[in-house]
Amino acid sequence: MNAFDIRKALPHRYPFLMVDAVTLLEENVKCIGIKNITLNEPCYRQVTDEASQADLRYPMSLIIESFAQVGALLCMRSRESIDVDVDNVMLAGSVLGVAVTENAYPGDVLEHHVEIVKELPDTVVIGGAVKARRPGRDELVSIATVESVVIAIRPSKELFG
């Protein structure tokens, strides 16, 4: 999926659309989504020229959000009957077992390796790992593992009337 396809699929928009591409998607199984971290991210707006590298750490909360958005794309592709814009809303909640192994920084290209752990009629549990491609390095760097994120699928009419 390219950026155009992702914009059609997810209701998120700037500054909260946090998936740039999907490079692998196996329906009902797994996908890999890409998030490019740049110095133009809103979270770096207040960082001055005197900032240290630690000041440029990308917030883990935003990494988990982009991970969940990749999971939502996997859920949507795996459940063709769901029309998030009209009939249903996806809600991410209950994030468990996040183990951070490394920080992410501008210039990193995050790869969200997301798998479906469990599927119920109105809920999908995803899990996986976040890895980064870094400038000047060939191997992927492990950023975090995520045991589970619960994605609830609820009828829009029940939530919004």
- Which stretches of 5+ consecutive residues score pLDDT under 50? none
Q: What is the assembly state of the chains in this entry?
A: single chain
Could you tell me the CATH topology label: Thiol Ester Dehydrase, Chain A
DSSP summary: helix tally? 3
Distance between the termini: 33 Å
Number of domains: 1
Q: Helix/strand-derived class?
A: alpha+beta
**Total beta strands:** 6
Return Rg in Å.
16 Å
Provide mean pLDDT, rounded.
92
Task: Provide a brief overview of the structure.
This protein has 161 residues and is α+β, with helices and mostly antiparallel strands. The protein contains 3 helices and 6 strands, in the order H-E-E-H-E-E-E-E-H. Strand 5 and strand 6 (141-155) form a beta hairpin.
3D architecture notes:
It comes from Aliikangiella maris. Keywords: Lyase. This is Beta-hydroxyacyl-ACP dehydratase. This protein has 161 residues and is of the alpha+beta class. Helix content is 19%, strand content 40%. Strand 1 and strand 2 form a beta hairpin. 25% of the residues are buried.
